[in-house]
Amino acid sequence: MKYSKSNLTPAKKKFAKVYAETDNGTKAIKEAYPELAANSSDNYLRVKSTRLLTNANVKNEIDIQKAKIEQLANKAISKIDKTIDSEDERLSFDASKWVYEQVHGKSVQKTQATSVSYIEHVSNKRQVYDI
Predict the structure, then answer these.
(1) All residues at 6 or more sequence positions from 48 whose CB lies less than 8 Å from its CB, including other chains
(2) In the chain, where are the structural domains located?
């Protein structure tokens, strides 16, 4: 039987939201279940978060939250992209975007379809400016 995401407790929804933002189960448990976190060891909290991550409804909510985050990030990138005027601003933005993707585990391959990767971009700029 398939359950809707509305069947999740508020704490499980909070866990899913924090986990989607941080990819850190222990941090998500601490924020979603503060009373439990105050009285439990980090090892127990890791076990509890692992259990929650195997719950299909929680995993579904995490996927929903990550999709929302991705959608907001894409909107922000699009707005910033429209306001960039100079090539220096473009280089700075590309570098920031590349770092964000590396930190958050997003594949650079996705951005390579529409732009040059950061390393190639910097290499090209160095040749242009003889750096």
Answers:
(1) 29, 33, 36, 40
(2) 8-66, 84-129
- State the distance between the two ends of the chain, measured CA to CA, in whole angstroms: 62
* DSSP state, residue 23: -
DSSP code at position 115: S
Q: List the chain pLDDT tens, one digit each, 131 residues.
A: 344 446 899 999 999 999 999 999 999 999 999 999 999 999 999 999 999 999 999 999 999 999 998 888 888 877 777 776 677 777 777 777 777 777 766 544 444 444 444 455 555 544 444 44
Taking the C-alpha atoms of residue 128 and residue 122, their distance in angstroms, rounded to an integer, is: 10
DSSP 54: T
**H or E element, residue 52:** helix 42-53
